[in-house]
């Protein structure tokens, strides 16, 4: 223990004369040295006012300030978890959560490259995403922006996203740092997370994004352990800057700097702001739209009176400008023109592919793939366009028109208005025309007892029914129940009572309630579609008819009942106006499947679950672990955290009658005290022809095998034996083994 504490480098945070925390300056580590040197040279020519100007949002357009005199363009930014928001001619991609559900790194990467291409074409310097908060509670309103309920999966997806967007020279922004796991009371709740859980669950995916070179971080609205995320010396200063050695720049979420916290925000490491100042512990702007940073702001006065040093302002400017150099934006970057047509057939095809490879097949009693010759009866408001223009049922809506009809993705500030949308019914009609079959549509959920339809079904031999339902989700509120909107569940049950082959297609942003209908004998197929973007119908048709053999897996657990989940927001909670309301992360490390495993709760469908039209065998598990005498401890900022300490291989074989892709998953049972029974530490996508076999390899890093040791503030390899579980889901384990490390 003593040795370990000596290994922890001297804390390099500085303190002001007044004792307030001041974040360490960027030091160019991790490949940023050249960019930082160039930034320092440029910033040294700026006046204080110019430096302050580049820390604030420009009023005219989403832009962080420029210094034209020196050729520094400033940074235009765009939101959008599903593409480039706020600009015409942008593609509406499947949700980030769908990308995660594909468990396919290549697909996640290609999705991000395409988003990066569209952003660049429009001259946008900064694209917001990846969102890497954890789907802690099942109805989390912004789960669509995130990568599911597991930190490892989320981290892998975050890294692919950063690499993909930044391959186009566009900065990517990881958000919402940190603890923004619920929308309920997001501006006046404090997420209280113990140190070990913070590191092993919530910081984890952000660390992977930093490792991938992410240029910027958006700090969140909420408090973290009692102080605002954008002015928090622990989460911003210690965790992000000291431990992760983040070299890029931090922007506040829109209006996330609150009155009275401007100085603390600057000193803790917030480098720039978007939006105006809010009143603390409320949902309200300070009257008169006041900016917290910039030449005419509290920050400017703080520099004048010495509570924020000019060297901190220099560091802000260095971080922002060095990212501009690092991404090559100083060279021939396209001029801003949000109306540039960034659409392409290539992107449409990619969206269709991501869609079909992210639809999770949950149940299939021989109904799918459809034969192509059956008559199809299609029910449900999500199968078509908006029928009613019904009043929007929620308090926070950016795109009310999208509540009915086909669900493309989550709503709120990152909603991308799709250039077009293919509904399930349209796609089925095209298919029916090509195959001389018939398809009938009955979309009105409020008229689900459609006697004419049911009479037709009764008279059609071999008819199949499809019920397409949705549960809208958005920024600004969490889903209180997980039941399909607009009498969706009643529609499913009604159709199933009349049609012996009923497939349910469910669109939402995370888990949904299946308990009233999933075991119905006539519900012979269930598909979790998530939000598929503009090609929704085509992606569904590809899976329904077996053009694409489904391979996606659930990036969350679907429980039998709401009470089975480890964390639900208190929906009655109200702001106190003078201090935070606390949200205690009492489940600790036991998020999602870890909770169900620990407490022996049987889920309806577990994390990692997903069926295929073929079957796969697993054999020949082999484990090679390091034989070196390892240091047991690695400090938080160790460069060894990503070193490989063990290699696991397994053979996967397609034992069925159709080519397909399998997603083998590796879970570790760590001997560390208090560790989850299983924690995901590897997955792969393996495409296999019939009877083909492939060896799959998983590399386990030092961080994968360590626990966060609060006492030593570092990553520690536990004593004892690791259990290795490899299988097709978190509960369908096919092979197990063990190994130990020497230290
Ligand atoms: C959201 C952010 C978003 C910002 C700007 C905020 O309401 O929390 O995710 O990036 O708006 O659009």
UniProtKB/TrEMBL annotation:
Domain Fibronectin type III-like stretches: 662-730
Signal peptide: 1-19
Compartment list: Secreted
Reactions catalysed, as given in the entry: Hydrolysis of terminal, non-reducing beta-D-glucosyl residues with release of beta-D-glucose
Keywords: Carbohydrate metabolism, Glycoprotein, Glycosidase, Hydrolase, Polysaccharide degradation, Secreted, Signal
Keyword Secreted tagged: yes
Glycoprotein keyword on record: yes
Alphabetized GO MF terms: beta-glucosidase activity
A Gene Ontology cellular-component term: extracellular region
Family matches, as InterPro entries: Cellulose_deg_GH3, Fn3-like, GH, Glyco_hydro_3_C, Glyco_hydro_3_C_sf, Glyco_hydro_3_N, Glyco_hydro_3_N_sf, Ig-like_fold
Entry's EC annotation: 3.2.1.21
Family listed: Belongs to the glycosyl hydrolase 3 family.
Biological function: Beta-glucosidases are one of a number of cellulolytic enzymes involved in the degradation of cellulosic biomass. Catalyzes the last step releasing glucose from the inhibitory cellobiose.
Protein name: Probable beta-glucosidase G
UniProt organism field: Kwoniella bestiolae CBS 10118
């Amino acid at each position: 223990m003593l040795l370990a504490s000596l290994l922890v480098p001297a804390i390099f945070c500085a303190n002001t004369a007044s004792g307030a925390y001041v974040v360490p300056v960027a030091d160019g580590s991790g490949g940023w040295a050249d960019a930082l040197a160039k930034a320092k040279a440029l910033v040294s020519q700026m006046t204080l006012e110019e430096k302050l100007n580049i820390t604030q949002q420009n009023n005219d357009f989403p832009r962080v300030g420029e210094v034209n005199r020196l050729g520094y363009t400033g940074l235009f930014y765009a939101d959008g978890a599903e593409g480039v928001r706020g600009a015409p001619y942008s593609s509406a991609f499947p949700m980030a959560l769908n990308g995660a559900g594909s468990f396919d790194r290549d697909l996640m990467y290609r999705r991000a490259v395409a988003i990066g291409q569209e952003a660049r074409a429009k001259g946008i310097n900064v694209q917001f995403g990846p969102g890497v908060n954890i789907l802690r509670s099942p109805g989390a309103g912004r789960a669509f922006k995130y990568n599911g309920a597991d930190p490892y999966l989320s981290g892998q997806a975050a890294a692919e996203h950063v690499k993909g967007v930044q391959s186009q020279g566009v900065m990517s922004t990881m958000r919402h740092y940190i603890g923004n796991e619920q929308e309920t009371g997001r501006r006046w709740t404090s997420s209280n997370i113990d140190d070990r859980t913070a590191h092993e669950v919530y910081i984890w995916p952000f660390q992977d994004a930093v490792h991938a070179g992410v240029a910027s971080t958006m700090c969140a609205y909420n408090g973290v352990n009692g102080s605002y995320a954008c002015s928090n010396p622990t989460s911003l200063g210690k965790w992000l800057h000291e431990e992760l050695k983040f070299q890029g720049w931090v922007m506040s979420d829109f209006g996330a700097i609150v009155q009275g916290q401007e100085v603390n925000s600057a000193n803790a490491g917030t480098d720039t702001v978007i939006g105006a100042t809010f009143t603390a512990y409320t949902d309200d702007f300070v009257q008169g739209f006041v900016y917290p940073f910039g030449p005419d702001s509290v920050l400017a006065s703080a520099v004048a009176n010495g509570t924020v040093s000019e060297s901190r302002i220099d560091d802000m400017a260095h971080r922002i400008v060095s990212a501009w150099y690092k991404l090559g934006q100083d060279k021939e970057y396209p001029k801003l023109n949000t109306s540039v047509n960034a659409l392409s057939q290539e992107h449409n095809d990619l969206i269709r592919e991501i869609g079909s490879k992210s639809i999770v097949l949950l149940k299939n009693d021989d109904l799918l793939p459809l034969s192509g010759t059956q008559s199809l009866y299609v029910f449900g408001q999500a199968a078509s366009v908006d029928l009613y223009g019904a009043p929007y049922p929620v308090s926070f809506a950016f795109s009310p028109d999208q509540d009915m009809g086909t669900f493309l993705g989550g709503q709120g500030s990152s909603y991308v208005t799709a250039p077009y949308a293919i509904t399930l019914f349209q796609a089925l009609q095209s298919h029916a025309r090509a195959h001389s079959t018939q398809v009938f549509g009955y979309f009105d959920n409020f008229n689900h007892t459609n006697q004419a339809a049911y009479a037709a079904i009764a008279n059609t031999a071999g008819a199949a029914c499809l019920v397409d339902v949705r549960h809208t989700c958005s920024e600004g509120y969490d889903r209180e129940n997980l039941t399909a909107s607009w009498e969706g569940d009643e529609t499913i049950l009604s159709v199933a009572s009349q049609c012996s082959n009923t497939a349910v297609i469910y669109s939402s942003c995370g888990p949904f309630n299946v308990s009233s209908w999933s075991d119905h004998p006539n519900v012979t197929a269930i598909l979790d579609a998530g939000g598929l973007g503009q090609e929704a119908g085509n992606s569904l048709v590809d899976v329904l008819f077996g053009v694409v053999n489904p391979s996606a897996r659930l990036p969350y657990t679907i429980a039998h009942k709401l009470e089975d989940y480890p964390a639900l927001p208190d929906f009655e909670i109200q702001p106190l106006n003078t201090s935070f309301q606390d949200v205690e992360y009492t489940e600790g490390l036991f998020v999602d499947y870890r909770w169900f495993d620990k407490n022996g709760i049987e889920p309806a469908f577990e994390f990692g679950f997903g069926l295929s039209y073929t079957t796969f065998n697993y054999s020949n598990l082999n484990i090679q672990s390091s034989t070196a005498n390892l240091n047991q401890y690695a400090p938080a900022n160790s460069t060894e955290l990503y070193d490989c300490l063990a290699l696991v291989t397994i053979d996967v074989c397609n034992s069925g009658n159709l080519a397909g892709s399998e997603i083998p998953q590796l879970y570790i049972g760590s001997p560390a005290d208090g560790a989850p029974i299983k924690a995901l530490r590897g997955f792969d996508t393996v495409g296999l022809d019939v009877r083909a076999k492939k060896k799959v390899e998983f590399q386990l890093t030092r961080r994968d095998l360590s626990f966060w040791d609060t006492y030593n503030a570092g990553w520690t390899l536990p004593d004892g034996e690791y259990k290795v579980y490899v299988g097709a889901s978190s509960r369908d384990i096919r092979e197990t083994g063990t190994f130990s490390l020497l230290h």
